[in-house]
Design brief:
The chain is an all-alpha fold. The chain is built from 16 helices and two strands. The chain has a two-stranded antiparallel sheet. Helix 15 packs antiparallel against helix 16. The chain is globular, with a radius of gyration of 24 Å.
Length: 416
Amino acid sequence: MALINESFFSAEGLEKRLAGKKFWKTMMTEYWIPKDINFLWALGVVLAVTFCILIISGIFLMMYYKPDTALAFDSVNYTIMQEVAFGWLFRHMHGVAASVIFLVIYIHMFTGIYYGSYKKGREMIWISGMLLFVTFSAGGFSGYMLPWGQMSYWAAAVITNLFAGGSLEAWGLVEWIRGGFAVNDATLTRFFMLHVFLLPLVIIMVIVFHFYTLRIPHVNNQISDDIDYDAEAEKYLAGNKKESKVIPFWPVFLSKDFAVVSVFLIFYFYLVFFNYNFAMDPVNFDPANDMVTPAHIYPEWYFLWSYETLRGPFFDMLGMKAGDIGLIIFGLAQVIFLVFPFLDKDPDVLPAHKRPMFFIWFWIMIVDLLVLSVYGKLPPTGANAWVGFYATAVFLLLWIVLPIVTKMDAKKRGAL
């Protein structure tokens, strides 16, 4: 053990014991970020800030929420909204943040896809990011159930019923998840535990892992330039800041992040005070009633595209039932983005506008996801059902052709 003579209560003593300056230097002042990036690279910090808002507002809401089927609805809509001082504000902040965080996640995710930030040594960054998406999705779903309104109850019934599809029924998974044969008080209690304790803990751990995976290969840049970080850092430290291609994480990069966060918070609080209803389904202001099914059941907007893949196949085909086909496609949709780095066969790290075929693929994917989202909220009848079916088919086809498209781009450049 190193000999430490300095007092524990002195600054020098604490530094010797904790190596705070070394940690700060390694993680902040000499953690190098490419200079050639835009505001989209600040979305990671925006996500961290939004998650902090969710945690803080959630703590205040948890003080008054009752995880009981007889009390949950009133504890939200009467106690918190009408009796607790500023309870309405914390509910609006939590509901809007829960919705906006997915908007930021999707932009962050597709920025990574567009600029090829999942390739060539950055696979773990992408995988950890997608694990975050999965855990946030689980958090969003479990939280959607807690107000115990009509849409909360029936959305929980539909989604948990997925675990009764096909051979899963024999395992009794749906009864195990619900704590009974139907969504009930035990289900609410379990989802409350997941939402306020287990999932936030997992999310924090995955966030730490995600930042750790960024530390080694460094972040990508707009032109996907392969930077010699050691050489560029020496230029910066020597005072040649203009020629250096990198900037320190603190204070230069984070100061830009804080500027973006400030603009985001203006947008966020505008929604909180003036347009919060977009994050709260009107059907959910009716108490849960297991004897009255809503005319049309649908999840929150950020789940609509995957929900539409579930119900897209509305007729039997290939000797399989429509429900089983939909369940398979839905399951595929939940994991397919996770393996994106291994489906892209182009060896070069380049932005999409420098890969013509992939550029077309990327924008078709964006349009298709938007179509799936729009029709996921509409009743699956008549023309709506057919649009959903074809959009689901396009979604599957895009993933099938992705390896072929990326190989074609690489061959045209002579990279393969």
